[in-house]
Each structure stands twice: as C-alpha cells, then as structure tokens.
From TrEMBL:
First-level EC class: hydrolase
Keywords in alphabetical order: Hydrolase
InterPro entries (alphabetical): Isochorismatase-like_dom, Isochorismatase-like_hydrls, Isochorismatase-like_sf
A molecular function (GO) term: hydrolase activity
Record flagged with keyword Cell inner membrane: no
Family designation: Belongs to the isochorismatase family.
Protein source organism: Ventrimonas faecis
Domain Isochorismatase-like intervals: 4-163
Full protein name: Isochorismatase family cysteine hydrolase
Cross-referenced CDD domains: cysteine_hydrolases
Classification via Pfam families: Isochorismatase (PF00857)
Lineage: superkingdom: Bacteria
Length: 169
C-alpha cells in the first residue's frame, strides 16, 4: 500500500506571522505527531508552501486579501521549525490549490493536514479527489485550522459531501 501525507502551508506566516492564529498554533503538536507517524513507517511526506513574489499586493489574490504573506525566501515563507525534517519533499504553489498533483505518482491513500482548512486544504483535497477518484483521500480535522472555527467546520462539511474522509474532529 502506498501512502502519502501532504502537509499544507504550515508556514511561519500562517502559524505565528501575519496570518497566524491561535487555532493554527494549537494544531502544531498534532501535526508533529502525524509527521512522525508517517516518517516512522517510511511513507512519503510532502510539504506545500504558499509562495508569493514581492508584487503580491498587485495580484488578484493580493487585492482581495491585502496582507503581505509568504513572500518567497522570507522567514514567513518557511515551514515552521517544529515540523522541518530531512527527507521530505516541498512544493511551492503560487495559489490555493496545486494543479500539478498528476506528476507526483499514484498512491492508494492520500492524507492532508494543515492550514487553512477553508482555503488551501479544501482546494487541494478537491483537486486530488478529482484526479485520483479511486484513492482514499482523507483529512485529519484535528491537524487542520481554518481562518475561523466556523469556516473550518464548513470546509470539513464540504469535503465530506465530496466523499473525502474527514476524521479526528
């Protein structure tokens, strides 16, 4: 069985920085334990990094969310130090969902954790479900945080409606 853990955007800016939240900080120990579980089994672990350029405020996203964050190469763009580990893969994605998952190979089980549940986690979960309809796509709600608790819950419900397994609530 082939398993992969995708850790969505657990970057300084989303945990302790310009878009950080107490909910994002609260899930860090859970995400650490999840990464250790996958690493101990020798499973594949992929981190995504929300990646913007200096002109972020001039982009369509920047105009709707005028908070500078995750500028490539800055401290805010880095994965939080508590989660960094050797042997993981990194994907720099310029928007909410990564459209190149087709090039990362086939997996029987794909689990997603991270932030923000209602933006990047749900976007990638839906893209993966569309690309790999026979794979088990799951999200551990206890390892995710949304922009608000209400939006987190709404995103979990959306994923359940789309046959993504949601657990850990």
């Amino acid at each position: 069985m082939s398993r992969v853990l995708i850790v969505i955007d657990m970057q300084n800016d989303f945990v302790t920085g310009s878009l950080g939240s107490k909910e994002a900080r609260a899930i860090v120990p859970n995400v650490q334990a999840k990464i250790k579980e996958y690493a101990d089994r020798g499973d594949r672990i992929i981190f995504t990094r929300d990646t913007h350029e200096e002109n972020y405020l001039d982009t369509a996203e920047g105009k709707k969310l005028p908070v500078i964050h995750c500028i490539k190469g800055t401290d805010g763009w880095q994965i939080i130090p508590e989660l960094e580990m050797e042997g993981c893969e990194y994907i720099d994605k310029p928007t909410f969902g990564w459209l190149n998952w087709g090039g990362f190979g086939e997996h029987d089980e794909i689990e997603l954790v991270g932030v923000c549940t209602d933006i990047c986690v749900v976007s990638n979960a839906l893209i993966l479900k569309a690309m790999y309809p026979e794979a088990v796509i799951s999200v551990d709600a206890g390892c995710c945080a949304g922009v608000t608790p209400e939006k987190h819950e709404a995103a979990l419900e959306t994923m359940k409606s789309c046959q993504i397994d949601v657990w850990g609530e």
